[in-house]
Amino acid sequence: MSQELIIEQVAKTPEKVVLCGQDEKNDLNLTENRVHLGTGGAAIKILDPDTGEVRSTTLKDLYNVSRLADQLENIHFLVRPCIPTDIDEKDYDINMFYACLSGSSKHVMAGVNDEKGLQNVIEMASMIAGSIDKLQKRPFISVITSFAISPLKLCTQSTHIMQEANRNFIPVALSSAPMAGSTSPLTMAGTLAQLHAEQLAGITICQLTNPGAPLLYGGIPGMANLKTMGYSGGAVECGMMNAAIHQLSNHINVPNYNSSGLTDSKIPDAQAGYEKAFTALLAAMGGSNYIHHSAGMLESMLTIAHEQFVIDDEIIGNCCKVLKGMECDAEHLALEVIDSVGPGGNFMVSPPHHGTYENRIL
Amino acid sequence: MTDFNKIQETLVNLDAEGVIQLVNDAVKEGTPASDILNKGLIAGMDIVGEKMENEDMFIPEVLMAAQTMSQGVEILKPLLGEDDTSAKGSVIIGTVKGDLHDIGKNLVAMMMESAGLTVHNLGVDIAPEEFVKQIKEKNANLLCMSALLTTTMPMMKQTIDAVVESGLRDQIKIMVGGAPVTQGFADDIGADAMAPDAGSAAKKAKAIAG
Ligand code: B12
Fold first, then answer.
1. CATH assignment of B4-84?
2. Do A229 and B154 touch (CB under 8 A)?
3. Which helix (H) or strand (E) holds A305?
4. Which of B58, B100, B104 lies closest to A227 in CB terms?
5. Domain boundaries of chain B, sorted by first residue
6. A360 vs B188: CA distance, rounded Å
7. For the domain bounded by A3-324, which CATH number is listed?
8. pLDDT tens across A204-258, in order?
9. Check: CATH 3.40.50.280 for B87-209?
10. Which of A98, A157, A301, B12 has the maximal Cβ count within 10 Å?
11. A-chain residues near B100 (CB < 8 A)
């Protein structure tokens, strides 16, 4: 691919992508620096909510977790959190989307096994929407394709799926996921440079397939634990690199998808808490439009747990709080209140400045 | 007298030049090549393997040591008898059909190589027929399969079935692995062994096929 071709094709990519929910209140406008965080991945194990023991995930788990994520108010969207290992793998695609869509009215994104699977999913979603036109107007589903096998190779199957999504104007997240130290250079900058090249290639393919096809720059920079080569999603470097992804996508005016809020711990413990808080906040402060893997996951994305979704909902809420920043107008400076309480007084009995403590101004 | 400890130590310290020097010296002194290999280089790699398992050494360092060892082996090869080189196991390893994950599989292959096994790494997306063909061609006695996806795990069973059908099952041991693969699954599909990581995979391979 020549530089010329890439520049020409990338320019055709929509700057604005709106991922809808079945319920309009869950629509996500992924432009500029608007930040959203949600669930992610394709975990294969769950800490059983009743026994606490680890076991394989089922279709029922997927449905239950979708309902849970639907209720947790800080989780903005649902990337299919786990795999229904109790059904035949040929039936995964349609059943995964069905379980998510029936459990939650938030936007649903997932990968599919093949083009046929995607066609079935689009057909089902069109039935829910009323027609394919209505689905394209309000896409409440989208797909992830791992079109890139780092370093610098295309996966044939996933590229075909990606193109099928393009042809149907279904938004697609172009995932390339190099691991610093094993499938990309050990340095953060080198990993990002390689990832950006992979993205430009993927975007070019999409726009050649169908000009104007909606897509997300999908940078998932990861890192290898150099003592085991295992995936170190909880490393602070992952948070840093994922924060940089939005700058790279913004540079070419395409909204981004990335990953943060992972942990390498197997249980919801202190390690899980700090790894998630650090990485999620970094990616959020980087302005990332669609941060997946941010809720519910453990063990470098192999496992989920109900309690972890609830804890992560809190972490996401805190990230969003930070992004709102501090208001500094006269009312918030509260000089009058300070004056009225005076030296040696206390603020416990001074009335909240607006409304109730529930929605107090901080 | 060749100081085998010195060779081991130098290897563990990643001093490639030093190792080559010591191997050449030992050859000049008339030490049997098989002793230099087994008591020096392979024994040194055993220490490296142990350090890796205890996470006292980084994987890139382990791979550097393995590279150094194979440089040493190159020197020794012309001097080694048929028995010394061919008695060790011959391993076929690949990621099963439909699966493109290979980081873990490649690590396992490298660790097996440094444990002294002859490894034929077929790559990714390998169909059952291809595994069977390669077992015959390479006259392998250990088949290793990797799968990272629940969608491709059934391919392990299909591959084992194909091996049984081809009549080769008696001549070959089968080991499986990958993040979703458990001992229970390995038992169910009729594999002989499974290992959760590269270090233990190499150890087991040596025990059952070395
Ligand atoms: C890196 C990665 C990728 C890379 C692979 C790059 C490469 N060159 O291998 C990319 C980005 C390409 C990728 C693609 C996909 N991936 Co992926 N991937 C991973 C990830 C994050 C890490 C795997 C890894 O390399 N680990 C590091 C190595 C060192 O560890 P390991 O592989 O487990 O190997 C060790 C042991 O298992 C053992 N071992 C391994 N093999 C063998 C063999 C033998 C014989 C023995 C004895 C031992 C053994 O020893 C190894 C060393 O200690 C895992 C999550 C995870 N934490 O495992 C997901 C994961 C496996 N992927 C997943 C998915 C869904 C996919 C995709 C389908 C995504 C999509 N929607 O398109 C595609 C599939 C592509 C395909 N057809 O194969 C899911 C699987 C879910 C499922 N259904 O089972 C996982 C679990 C992530 C998740 N939760 O979402 N992936």
1. 1.10.1240.10
2. no
3. strand A303-305
4. B58
5. 4-84, 87-209
6. 59
7. 3.20.20.480
8. 999 999 999 999 999 999 999 999 999 999 999 999 999 999 999 999 999 999 9
9. yes
10. A301
11. 149, 155
